Amino acid sequence: MANALTGLNAVSRAADVVSSNVANAMTEGYGRRDIELSSHQVGRTGSGVAVDGVSRYYDPVTTGERRIADGDVALEDVRAEFYDTFTKAMGQPDEADSVAGRITGLETALIEAASRPDSEARLTTVLDAATELTSQIKTAADSLKDIRMDADKQIGKAVDFLQSSLQQVVDLNVAIQKQVSQGYDPNALMDQRQTLVDQISEIIPVKEIQKNNGMISLYTSGGAVLVDSKAATIEFTATPTISPDMTVENGALSGLTINGQLVSTDTEKGAIAGGKLAGLFEVRDKLVPDAQVQLDALARDLIERFETTDADPTLGIGAAGLFTDGGSALDPLVEEGLSSRISVNALVNPDQGGDLWKIRDGLGAISEGDQGDATILNSLADALQKTRIASSGSLTSIERSALGFASDIYSLGKTNQLKAEADLTFATARQESLHSIELENGVDTDNEMQKLLVIEQAYGANAKVIQTIQALMDQLMGI
Fold first, then answer.
1. Fewer CB within 10 Å, N- or C-terminus of the chain?
2. What is the mean pLDDT of the chain?
3. Cβ proximity of 163 and 3 under 8 Å
């Protein structure tokens, strides 16, 4: 009777484990359960079956690799999104409303005005084309500013979530340790903790170290301790408004500290290498500033092309040409943010008190000249088409026209975008492959159903033993 009762208890627990596995077959973070049984011994005599506990399947190697892949996907996704946004802001060179398209529009307007220098309508078209070009450059610069500020904001949110999640891991560690020491089943809490660590790994890829009584420690791939006996203190201060000159180095932007120590945010070798957080820091501190340098270099190139006496012989020494730095001549020492300040010279804009004819006769002209003279208009068109080496930026190896410069900036961004998307595709494929391996080692419903059949048979057999004993007892009592 005692043997049969222990058998019923064992199969009852086994049925509970199987039902839990089947119910959670699609649950993320759920570890497959297996019941652990052993022969029960009383003295020298076997006494049924003992339920030793319920084990939770966990493959630390595969899960660790998958978590690194999760971080890689998040990192490449941040990069690809940045390049996609920037190239859209620049626009494809063959689109009329792109930066390159606006340069082509200005070039066309100058050539058409040169064919009819007496036409006020064509001079107006030149002014409109120049204004649209500066507006498009400013729009691209504003896009970079918005991207940088959004990255800074997302860093703040990610750090807040990270700090909260690390504390939850510590709390679950304590709860699991208590469950283990008291002999209770801690597997449900371990499932919760695994899901939490998976979420952390998207922000910062972590390595999990098993400790006594079911507890764990978390370390970044760069060696920083996130969870040990307590959670690390991670701090970051978001900046509401960011300008191009603001950096971590000059103290205008916040870096990341772990337990009060400023850490490197390099995506390859930093303390938080790989993952969304490192990607956001890369966007804020490297990708956007690099793109800003290129855009500022383009704005400077445009200003310089029209600030020479070759383009406009009437210009005085130090006078601004068709394009200005916020209304003034270019100051090469203050190039940061130039793409946000570039504007058309007010001297040619009637709405700002200027004279439209100065486009044809020169910005330094005192009075209107021969309406049929297209010399300066041709010089302005030549200045735009002339190939020259840019004074700044990274594209200073070869001579380019203004259109070629803008097109090459777009091409460089597009090349980086395609590379980031290719890296994202590779990282995603690796992530999916590792996730599939995890699922293969997870709950197999077909196998669980087979176990359920065995459980049903075992339950019936133990019940039959008890039923037989009952019948024998009834017979004995009837004698």
1. C
2. 91
3. no
Give, in degrees to the nearest 5, the angle at Cα 334 between 282 and 79.
15
Q: Closest Cα partner for 27 from 223, 198, 176, 150?
A: 198
- Render pLDDT for 93-139 as a digit per residue (tens, 0 to 9): 999 999 999 999 999 999 999 999 999 999 999 999 999 999 999 99
**Residue 44 banded pLDDT, cuts 50, 70, 90:** low
Q: Which residues, in sequence order, are bridge partners of residue 265?
A: none
By CB atoms closer than 10 A (0-12, 13-18, 19+), residue 370 is exposed
Q: Give residue for tokens 């197999």.
A: 444
pLDDT tens digits along 274-286: 899 999 999 999 9
Could you read off the pLDDT of 243-260 as tens digits, one per residue?
999 999 999 999 999 999
Q: Pick from 164, 98, 102: which is nearest to 131 by CA? A: 102
- In this prediction the pTM is 0.86
Residue 401 tokens, joined: 């026209």
Model confidence pLDDT, tens digit, residues 429-448 = 999 998 888 877 777 788 87
Dihedral sign of CA atoms 41, 46, 52, 58 in order: positive
**pLDDT of amino acid 295:** 96
Three-state SS string across the chain, please?
Answer: CHHHHHHHHHHHHHHHHHHHHHHCCCCCCCCCEEEEEEEEEECCEEEEEEEEEEEECCCHHHHHHHHHHHHHHHHHHHHHHHHHHHHHHHCCCCCCCCHHHHHHHHHHHHHHHHHCCCCHHHHHHHHHHHHHHHHHHHHHHHHHHHHHHHHHHHHHHHHHHHHHHHHHHHHHHHHHHHHHHCCCCCHHHHHHHHHHHHHHHHHCCEEEEECHHHCEEEEECCCCEEECCCECCEECCCCCCCCCCCCCCCCCCCCEEECCEEECCCCCCCCCCCCHHHHHHHHHHHHHHHHHHHHHHHHHHHHHHCCCCCCCCCCCCCCCCCEEECCECCCCCCCCCHHHHEEECHHHCHHHCCCCCHHHHCCCCCCCCCCCCCHHHHHHHHHHHCCECCCCCCCCCCCECHHHHHHHHHHHHHHHHHHHHHHHHHHHHHHHHHHHHHHHCCCCHHHHHHHHHHHHHHHHHHHHHHHHHHHHHHHHHCC
